[in-house]
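Bench notes, afternoon.
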Amino acid sequence: MEPARSALGRPALLLALAACGLVGCPTDFVVDLGPAYTFAEGEDTTQAFDGIVGVPNIDDDNRNGDPDWRDADVSEDDDLSPFWIQPELWRLVKNGQHLRLRMLSGDRDVRVWLDGEIVLGESDGDTVPLEFELTRSRDPIEFRVEFRDYLVQAEFELARLDRNGEDASTVRFGALASPLVMNHHLQPAELVMAVRVAEQGYDNDAFIRAYQDALGEDRFLVVDGNDFQGDVWLQDEIEFATVSAPDARIDFVIDSIRNRGLDNVAEDLFEAPEFLVRTWGSGQATSQDSFGNLEATPPFSLNGRNYPFGKVYYGDGGGPYQVTEELRAFFDDQLAQAPFELDISWLCVGHVDEFMSWVPVPGSRLGWKLVYTDIDGAWDVLEAMDQSTPLPLYNQAHGLGTVGEIVDDAGLRTLNEDLWEDYLEPNLEILKEETGLTDEDIIWLPGLFEIASGCGGGTAALIPGMANLIVANFPGETMELFMADPFLRTDPEDQGDDGMIPTARALFGSGVNVNFIDDFWVYHYGLGEVHCGTNVIRTPVASWWKSIGPLVQDWR
């Protein structure tokens, strides 16, 4: 039999009543569960969730100030997931028989609407309706499923009842809401943004112009620093995430509790209902609550389990110096991105983006590579340079006037060797264990650290931290990478004479534009780099219901 098709034109998910037997059914089209299943050839359908998927109805489509789940009217709501009882089904229902839709579980978290009324699940009445008898119809009957929160689920049963009201045949199907998933660097870029502070007593015009020249004004948003007290650390204030379903997407702005000058940027720039702003945690923030310390790996599979959104990771500085418990617990509950921690106790600021990042590398073993700070590689570059080369910016900022003064600094060399052995190498082992990457999956990007002044022994980048980078991968265009200009040269204006840039650029190969941008005084001297001062809205690409549906259901 040719598969029946829904109104959306896709092959419908077919659930057959048991009484039909193996052959001879008038129709096997029973419940049309919506547009969840459009698979590319060769995709593993055993990993798909076998039922209705949707997004939690927690936004405010009608803008009345309440989450939509609390509303009695869903006429303006676009976050409900439909399923249909098609008219062909009634051929199976003889005179005196009935069809009953029953909610077997999840009645406090999931409800079903029909013609603007709740027919199953939580309602405003004294009782919760758990059964609904269908009325014969010549037209498809469209039900709409609503989810209260992330990852809530329910089970339904459609039954044909005989003349005595007994089950003659039944079919069961589930419903599951999306987790919240945080973006990673492989997702296509939609918009890059940074804060301009040229009128704030310090000047980042060169930083802003580099983005504008490479991306154009349509793909780069300049945020006015006058509106946000000159706070340039846009990465630290917000992270972007999504919940998604086959026909729905809600973009989230996760707003940090750091509450500095950019405190209101999420609400000011990202308006509902296009974006939903949420904060997890409260109270006194530490540096670890800034979102340079909250990142996600690219997607991968490991030990038979898929991570199509990658894994969330963050740094632990020991004691109270870690991401607020409420946010850590929330990501643990989302399951899909299986969070893990790295040790950032050795850093003054203490963010995971200070020494690593990820870049797409088409054709590589994993489709991406880890960019990791390479201590030995930095010494190799410096030792190959003319030791008498004056370094005016390093002299002003770090008290190191020539290349030779860096190379001959025994304490600096010992510090970086110890950092590698005690922290960088152990963190790399954690990354390998958590993601399955190997040495061939790493781009070793030269970098050195120094003791940061007034930081109790914590360290920060000496050479502007190039691993703290931005990936701008707009669809159909050459990928742009933005990283800190290392300024290992006498003339700050002449990148062609820099001792580090050719080595760093060569690591990323052809087909990538590597932009070394001036972040020295506003960002680097302020103990941050390019990634810290930039943010990117990205397109969600993974379909969780195809690749981790059963696992999420089982984990719950």
